[in-house]
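Rotation project, supervised by the postdoc (A.L.). Task for the rotation student: set up a whole-complex structure prediction and record inputs and outputs verbatim in this book. Inputs entered:
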Amino acid sequence: MTLPVVYCLPVPQIIVENLVKTYQVAERPIGVLGGLKALAWPRYKTVTALEGVSFSLESGELVGYIGPNGAGKSTTVKALTGILVPDSGRVEVMGRIPWKERVAHVARIGVVFGQRSQLWWDLPTIESFDLLKEIYKTPTPKYVQTRDELVDRLSLSELLNVPVRQLSLGQRMRCELAASLLHSPDILFLDEPTIGLDAVSKLAVRDFMRVLNRERGVTVILTTHDMDDIEALCSRVILIAGGKILSDGSLSSLRAQVTQERWLIVDLEEQSAPPCGQDFEIVSQQGDRFTLRYQPAQTDTAGLIGRIAAQCSVRDLRVEEPPIEEIIARLYGGAGK
Amino acid sequence: MKAYFALFSARFRMLLQYRAAAIAGFGTQLAFGLILVMILEAFYRSGNAEQPLTQAQAVTYTWLGQAFLGMLPYTANPDPEVRDMIRSGAVAYELALPLDLYTLWYARAIASRSAPTLLRCFPLLFVAYLFLGMTLPPSLASGAAFLVSLLAALFLVSAFSVLITVSLMWTVSGDGIARLLPSLVFLCCGLIIPLPLFPDWAQGILNILPFRGMADAPFRLYLGHLPPGDVFAIVAHQLLWTLAFVLLGKWLVGLGSRRLVVQGG
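Outputs recorded:
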């Protein structure tokens, strides 16, 4: 006797297929005359923000969504959060089309826009929290539990009774994070959450995101220009430029896509001769520190180190991958933007 | 429902933080009221024909207008909160809340129309009654009719001011409409000159327009200039216009949110 075997393919939590969005932008010639002309005959040009973007995400992923300014990152996030209606394409988040069932959809997601605030400027943070409890219809015991946990994790207890306008940016961002999570969403969208934060606040925000993703299984979609955020957090990176996805995968595959090169950083003694050779080039020289670039596929790393150590008097050296900023800059450059 | 009430009470608590603004508002309205009362007095002294309002009634009407001024969309900023949100793009957060956008804005409008008024009207009415010639309603029934139609006026004014807010979805800056309409409202609801003092030919139009229900009708119920029994017809007129504004607003929000572009990255 054979038992019927049922294969359950996991349905991705977020599906984006062929997403297209264009904007009409008014064209204004400069100067008074130009302004008058535009007043009489307004002219519009069509700007394509998204040109057929597709990807899918599984529940519990922590994805970095990166790209240069104007690449279409925010537009994608707005479509995923139901704020914006795209021209064409399919978006499904937890089985719902965000802009069609906006209210049901947003009840299950959390959003933080780093450059805006969802807290009541003039009121203590706790009042905004209480208001959100009512808006999301969270039962009191569950609300109190979630709130206390967030207050503890983000060390907010000192801040709760301070009017939001008196908080520093780092403090406010921690409060914004808590506010977006009070209703225990399944997915958290973070649009540049570390923008303008100092190092300590950035680390606090990052640690918190990691805990949230690992321990609570919340899917996190993070758009940022801070590559340290990406390196510290994201197992998967989607790179968008000019409205198209250029790359989708791990950070190391993103690197591999651009270049295999390694950097050898050498600190020399003061009297030493500079390194020279055919199979590497010097990227930079700062004082006694030389940064060399080479292709490990052609040049054997151990051999190169041996030759340089014989040629110059080396104080210290180390091998690194090129910094992620360098990789991203090259990718952006390659996109012709 | 609870969410909207919470919104209202947050707004109220927020206003309580601004004592200086409340005192300044009180002073401004007192000064404006005095000017209007003096103009009225000059007008009553020089005219010899019989006026549709007695001088005492006109004075009381003026003080009511000053006391409930905050309820009317009288400034260039009928709903500064939502307007700033649309301009700055923070409206994205508004759309990220699991609430119907129109209802949310309507609730915000009711809160921003009523909270400051509640805060300011009592001291002003008190001072005007004690020192400045304001009178009490002639009967309890007149007073009750006034309160009922004042509440209906709040709903009417709020529905109207949401329409101004919604227009921002098309114009971004929105200063044009937001400056033009309040001046019209201000004139047509009786806050500059009491409506009974308008010429006869204007009365017919004013009776149909929604603005009478925003101030003039409740005030005249207070004075007893309209009998308390008229309250049913007045409230029906107010609520019909409210319904029309709400339906129009809902339709426009549906239309507007499809083309809404949240500014900036």
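Student's summary: The first strand of chain A starts at residue 14 and ends at 27.
Supervisor addendum: Residues 260-321 of chain A form a domain with the Alpha-Beta Plaits fold (CATH 3.30.70).
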